[in-house]
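Lab channel / #folding
Pinned by the channel admin:
"Please post every new chain as: sequence first, then the structure tokens as a reply. Keep commentary short and put observations after the output so the thread stays searchable."

First post following the new format, from NK:
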Amino acid sequence: MFQIIFNELSAAEISALPKRLQLELLAEFQILPEDLDQLDSERFGVIEREGKKLYRYRAKNYRIYFAKTEEGLKVHRVLHKTRFAIFCSEASCLFPRTRNWAKRASSGS
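Reply from TO:
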């Protein structure tokens, strides 16, 4: 069974948004794992480091950062588009940091 799983942090972030905005973002975020094989560059981005992939989906003024898992998708963060720097500083748990990591990652955001 395909699932979209929100971790604690992403669940708290989306819960903090107004209910109407939550529904609008989730209505836009309708994807399947096979959709990740041919990404629409208008909506999607990908960060890859040491064999791990983290995807970004653009929904309105928000960015949903997620990874593909055996069960489906695991959402790591739901951030306003201007908050990418916060994500970069915390993403070291998924990707080892390098000096130019944020610059390379944001070039596709």
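NK: Strands lie at 3-6, 44-49, 52-59, 62-68, 72-80.
TO: also worth noting, Helices lie at 8-15, 19-28, 84-90, 101-106.
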